[in-house]
Amino acid sequence: MMPVRSARMTALLAFILGGCDRSGHAPLSAAAVVGCYQFAGRDGQALRSGSGFWIAPVRLDTVLAPVDGDGGYTTQPGYYSATPTAQIAEPNAIDTALFRATWQLLPPDTLLVMRSTGLHGQSISLQPRGRDFAGVEQWFNDVVDSTRSPSMDSVLARRVDCPKGD
Q1: Residue 104 has what pLDDT?
Q2: Tens of pLDDT along 75-102?
Q3: CB 122 within 8 A of CB 116
Q4: More confident residue, 160 or 27
Q5: Considering 7, 44, 126, 143, which has the largest number of Cβ atoms within 10 A of its Cβ?
Q6: Contacts of 58 (CB under 8 A, 6+ apart)
Q7: Torsional class of 145: left (φ above 0), alpha (ψ -120 to 50), beta (otherwise)
Q8: Please, which residues bridge with residue 128 across strands?
Q9: pLDDT at residue 113 greater than cutoff 50
Q10: For the chain, what is the HEC assignment?
């Protein structure tokens, strides 16, 4: 029989840890992620993009983002906007006009940032590293080619102050 004190302690620990993942850390929340990040590859350079999307910090906001749905673009809970903080290429450039940039949380601790046309794009899967995030970038398309393995590169998303006036 368990002493009363031990039973209470066990119940308290179960209550406290109930909202945590297996590592004992609280799952990521959108509020904890919101802010501006400088995305860079393992070489320290901005991620590639025809429009220069990644050159300046990118703001991850809780504004619901348009995602591809039945009959056009719609918003869905949990899909948020990712927007560059600097002027990028012409608004009508293919890399700007056709790509949607979104982010979402995949429990317990993954931040997924996507830029996609729906047929091809870029997926960045990140985990927390202190104030920042680290993970991998992968380009994808709708062409199935079993002779090629997907290209993956390391990515660091370093939290930075959002530009003033932005």
Answers
A1: 95
A2: 788 989 998 887 665 655 555 556 788 9
A3: yes
A4: 160
A5: 126
A6: 36, 37, 38, 39, 82, 83, 84, 85, 101, 113
A7: beta
A8: 133
A9: yes
A10: CCCHHHHHHHHHHHHHHCCCCCCCCCCCCHHHHCEEEEEEECCCCECCCCCCCCCCCEEEEEEEEEEEECCEEEEEEEEEEEEECCCCCCCCCHHHHCCEEEEEEECCCEEEEEEECCCEEEEEEEEEECCEEEEEEEEEECCCCCCCCCCEEEEEEEEECCCCCC
Q: What's the token pair of residue 116? A: 């996609």
Of these ranges, 17-21, 82-86, 105-109, 147-151, the one predicted with the greatest mean pLDDT is 105-109
Residue 11 structure tokens: 């119940």
Q: Going from the N-terminus, what domains does the chain have, and what CATH number goes with each? A: 25-160 (2.40.128)
10 vs 70: CA distance, rounded Å: 48
| Cβ-contact 105, 30 below 8 angstroms | yes
Sign of the alpha-carbon dihedral angle for 69, 72, 78, 82: positive
Cβ within 8 Å of residue 120, ≥6 positions away: 139, 140, 141, 142
Please give the distance of CA 109 from its chain centroid, rounded to a whole number. Answer: 11
Copy the structure tokens of residue 27. Answer: 């799952």
Angle in degrees, CA 147, 152, 41, rounded to 5: 150
